[in-house]
Write a structure and sequence with these properties.
Largest sheet of chain A: 8 strands, mixed
Number of strands of chain A: 8
Strand order of the largest sheet of chain B: 3-2-4-1-5-6-7-8
Number of helices of chain B: 10
Helix content of chain B: 40-55%
Strand content of chain A: 5-15%
Oligomer: heterodimer
Radius of gyration of chain B: 21 Å
Distance between the termini of chain A: 14 Å
Distance between the termini of chain B: 9 Å
Order of helices and strands of chain A: HHHHHEHEHEHEHEHEHEEH
Largest sheet of chain B: 8 strands, mixed
Number of helices of chain A: 12
Bound molecules: guanosine-5'-triphosphate, potassium ion, magnesium ion
Order of helices and strands of chain B: HHHEHEHEHEHEHEHEEH
Strand order of the largest sheet of chain A: 3-2-4-1-5-6-7-8
């Protein structure tokens, strides 16, 4: 992931490094290339503009101009600002003092919610927790079955009420079931939906007010383009997100969506999906990611 | 918007509209450059004409008219491919519904034997649309499903066989060669098949779709694109960058999750929609 952006920035700054001293025109040229590289990586245009302005301000400042190695100094500035943009440090799941902890996954169609629910359940079980997964997608054909198959493979229980029941009632039923059966973590799989679909966004709000999740995670496909910010902003406005799961990072998408979503919602990226298998989930590390972006 | 002259700011605004629609920074720059040239050549001075000119550029790039799926062979075999979660299986249901409504006999093949309940998903769609589905067990060889389905299509006198495949990321060599094999198996069962290979792209996708089109093209040869999820706020502008590089026609678009949410791709309409809400700039 991000290789190509790293390559571009590196070659830009190699040119700068060769000179030993940076003029304002040099910086402007480098910033143009940073802008193109970030856009090619699908970072949102507005985010790019702000980012480049911030970096530029620091790059033409004394800290860089007075440096003996201004090129490296600029790289350092870009790196620091990238880390800052992506959240500084890695984040954890909010666990409730009183079980069950309720985690709800939401997002656009096909982003990877159902898969991520099962991955997260496995991840939490490895930490000694007792997860229950709930099938709240009554719309997509065989969505319930999909979660059941995954639950079977992992030997993690799945609560379902079929497809003839309101998802809000399923969530409530799942909550009762988790308490009755002593499961300390409840993961809700919800149907994919467009952020502009008021009826379905309303459904999520109703689930939220009914079971009061401790953690609402937006699942975002790493291949998403400029629209990522519209989607994330709307989900955040309507539901109040606690974090993001970035999926399909095992591909070669540069994943600018990650930067964009964090920048507009302020919500940390908590996990990344790195494959279709249940084990392919890892905590997100912004510093490592920034280093990767810059090829450091 | 009340602008008197064509100035730098206007060009920049147009470039930004294109970038925001996922056209890509390089392609956007290129298109705006072409626009500048045209403005000079044709001595255009009215700023309100620029948007139309740009739309004409886009239509020229996409091709004036929709390219239909040819249904000449019997059976015609359509292979549907793409990365994970873009809408392949749903698009197959929509295509089946469309062709069945035209009075054709359609058969589906459950070639995704990998993803949990992918076979059940296609089977439910088959029931809803009212077409048969050839299926094997989960975990079985997708090539074998494709072979059986082709045989069944021949013996049942089917007009169109549509083959579903598992979503796969184009950078995974083993999965891409598995797909090439499905293509070869179909050709063995029915020489000349698959007759149409549709790559499904999610309109929400950014610049990565260019690589998807390139690598799926190399692995199986793509004859057409389907752009799904255009009912959202994403514009799918990346198909311009794809046209710039590969020139594979977009054949259909998806505008929802129901079986009648499929439309023939119309370049003019697409070009207009690119400028949708952003058209007035500030
Ligand atoms: N390569 C890869 N594929 C993934 C990853 N996460 C999910 N997928 C695949 O993406 C596709 C969609 O995943 P789902 O979990 O069904 O997505 P969803 O968001 O639940 O979809 P809807 O319920 O239809 O909205 C499937 O083919 C998954 O196997 C990932 O991290 N890497
Ligand atoms: N809004 C919208 N949703 C769509 C459209 N096409 C498909 N979907 C939804 O996108 C999700 C994924 O669709 P699928 O057909 O399962 O995608 P797929 O490519 O077969 O997925 P995998 O087999 O897991 O790779 C489902 O929730 C569909 O209902 C569309 O045009 N608009
Ligand atoms: K997607
Ligand atoms: Mg799902
Ligand atoms: Mg599918």
């Amino acid at each position: 992931m991000f290789e190509s952006l790293a390559e571009k920035l590196q070659s830009t700054f190699k040119k700068l490094r060769g000179k030993g001293k940076v003029s304002e025109a040099d910086v402007a040229e480098a910033m143009r290339e940073v802008r193109m590289a970030l856009l090619a990586a699908d970072v949102n245009l507005k985010v790019v503009k702000n980012f480049v302005a911030k970096v530029k301000e620091r790059a033409i400042g004394q800290e860089v101009l007075d440096s003996l190695t201004p090129g490296q100094q600029v790289v350092k500035v870009v790196h620091e600002e990238l880390v800052a943009l992506m959240g500084g440090t890695s984040s954890k799941i909010n666990m409730s003092q009183k079980p069950p902890t309720v985690i709800m996954l939401v997002g656009l169609q096909g982003a990877g919610k159902t898969t991520s629910v099962s991955k997260l359940a496995l991840y939490l079980r490895k930490q000694g927790r007792k997860p229950l997964m709930a099938a709240c997608d009554v719309y997509r054909p065989a969505a319930v079955k999909q979660l059941q198959v995954l639950g079977n493979q992992l030997d993690i229980p799945v609560f379902s009420m079929g497809t003839g029941v309101n998802p809000v009632d399923i969530a409530r039923g799942a909550m009762e079931n988790a308490i009755a059966t002593g499961r300390d973590t409840l993961l809700l799989d919800t149907a994919g939906r467009l952020h502009i679909n008021e009826e379905l966004m309303g459904e999520l709000k109703n689930i939220k007010s009914t079971v009061k999740p401790h953690e609402i995670l937006l699942v975002v496909d790493a291949m998403t383009g400029q629209d990522a910010v519209n989607v994330a902003e709307t989900f955040h406005e309507q539901l109040g997100l606690d974090g993001v799961i970035l999926t399909k990072l095992d591909g070669d998408a540069r994943g600018g969506a990650a930067l964009s979503v964090k920048a507009v919602t302020g919500c940390p990226i908590k996990f990344v999906g790195l494959g279709e298998k249940a084990e392919a989930l890892e905590p997100f590390h912004p510093d490592r990611m920034a280093s990767r972006i810059l090829g450091m | 918007t009340g602008r008197q002259h064509i100035d730098e700011e206007l060009y920049e605004e147009l470039e930004e509209v294109l970038i925001s629609a996922d056209v890509g920074a390089e392609m956007a720059l290129e298109m705006v450059e072409r626009l500048r040239k045209k403005v000079k050549e044709q001595k255009i001075s009215d700023p309100s004409e620029l948007k139309n000119l740009l739309q004409q550029e886009i239509v020229a790039l996409l091709g004036q008219e929709a390219v239909p799926v040819k249904i000449e062979q019997k059976p015609t075999v359509v292979l549907v491919v793409g990365v994970n979660g873009v809408g392949k299986t749903t698009t197959i249901a929509k295509l089946a519904h469309r062709w069945k409504s035209e009075g054709r006999k359609v058969l589906l093949a459950a070639g995704d034997t990998f993803r949990a309940a992918a076979i059940d998903q296609l089977e439910i769609w088959g029931q809803r649309v009212g077409v048969d589905v050839i299926r094997h067990q989960e975990g079985s060889d997708p090539g074998a499903v494709a072979y059986d389905a082709a045989q069944a299509a021949i013996s049942r006198g089917v007009d169109i066989l549509i083959v579903d495949t598992a979503g796969r990321l184009h950078n995974k060599n083993h999965l891409m060669s598995e797909l090439s094999k499905v293509g070869r198996v179909l050709d063995r069962a029915l020489p000349g098949a698959p007759h149409e290979i549709l790559l499904v792209l999610d309109a929400t996708t950014g610049q990565n779709a260019v690589t998807q089109a390139r690598l799926f093209g190399e692995a199986v040869g793509v004859s057409g694109l389907v752009l799904t999820k255009l009912d959202g706020t994403a514009k799918g502008g990346v198909i311009l960058a794809i046209q710039g590089e590969l020139s594979v026609p977009v054949k259909f678009i998806g505008i929802g999750e129901a079986m009648d949410d499929l439309r023939v791709f119309e370049p003019q309409q697409f070009a207009k929609a690119l400028f949708g809400q952003e058209e007035t700039g500030e």
